[in-house]
Write a structure and sequence with these properties.
The chain has about 450 residues and is mainly beta. It has two helices and 34 strands.
Amino acid sequence: MFQITTQPTQWFSLKICLLALLVSGLHFSHATDWPQWMGPDRASIWQEDGIVESFPESGLKRIWRVKVGLGYSGPAVADGKVYLFDYVKKEGQLKNNPSGKNLLEGRERLLCLDAATGATEWVYDYIQYYNLSYAAGPRSTPTVHQGKVFILGAEGRLSCLSAKDGKLIWHKDFKKEYDIETPIWGFSSHPLAKGDTLYSLVGGEGSVLVAFDADTGDEKWRALSAPEPGYGPPTWIEHGGVSQLLIWHPESLNSLNPETGESHWSIPLKPGYNLSIAAPRLYEDSLFVSAIGNVGAMIELDPLKPAARIAWRGNARSALYSVNVTPFIEDGIIYGCDVESSAFMAVRLEDGKRLWETHQPTIGEGNSGRHGTAFVVQHEDRYFLFSETGDLILARLTAESYHEISRAHLLDPTNEAFGRDVVWSHPAFAHQNIYVRNDKEIVCVSLAKKDY
């Protein structure tokens, strides 16, 4: 027990200080970071209070905007900072050819910005030549973990930096150190950090996945062989009484022991064009996996041990075949974007039956084309969808229907795909804001109820 004795003026000052600390504590307890691709747990769920339930007719409030370079990489937000990975082109003409490579000269760059103001805190960059298809910048979103930020460049340079000041701690050149070539669409997998380990898709014989010491960059173990590493992220699940690391390369879906790299199970599952991109989605005892080429499957997991089997596979008239966007599952319903039709649809997990579809959040009703894209994030009983058109949509999704509540245009699409103008970058939701970029700027827009 202790006692505070003060004069009246001192007591008033003390009360002000205590009130400030209390308010500060309340603020930070309700604020959330978005330190990696798809959020804190890669669950595509935003858990923050005081968020708008509809958009005002006057539009959403832009807090700041900052010029940036090329990139598909989404922003990450942690500890009051925004980390954005981009490409500053010096020479070459950007040409998006799905089957051909594009040669560019420039620099890959990581920007650290103040999350509240957009002011530049520090910059880390290096010379990087590109020779790949869809060469408009890095694909992988920065991963911020325990005071470090990890970035994987499109040509296979993995870097670990101090999140505070941008100083390089260690880096790896995958092509030199593992004697591999860049996949045609570049190194795209978002590195996954857990404890003192960083997991990254690499490629090569026996090294599709490599576990690195997050502090030193030393290799802990390597696992799996395939003609190409694929483009999807390492995915961590807790199931069957153990931790499992899911790796989907162009030959099979694999479950590994995260400590050793030893295999729990493996299921043959070959996507078209080697495009294993979307992460497997866990729902109770089921995994849903989908890709181009009518590759969609529900995989049943053993609840008591690490084992799996295919429960059903889709066909041309069932399931969902998602490429650019990892689907979301709620109450046994899969919501996502179909690669062939560009429709956003609801599909029943138990049997793959399509329940409804719409083009409203992807390419727009009345339009046609493939690879229509809308990134999906759940907030309470609603969903934020960021469309390839640069629109932010607030909607309700149920097994019965798609209901659009509000829509606001945040920025213009500055890239091109299949004859359409697109922005293909996953936004970040943090501090009651949305942070989203195209190939010219990143904007911070308020979604706080108090601002409207």
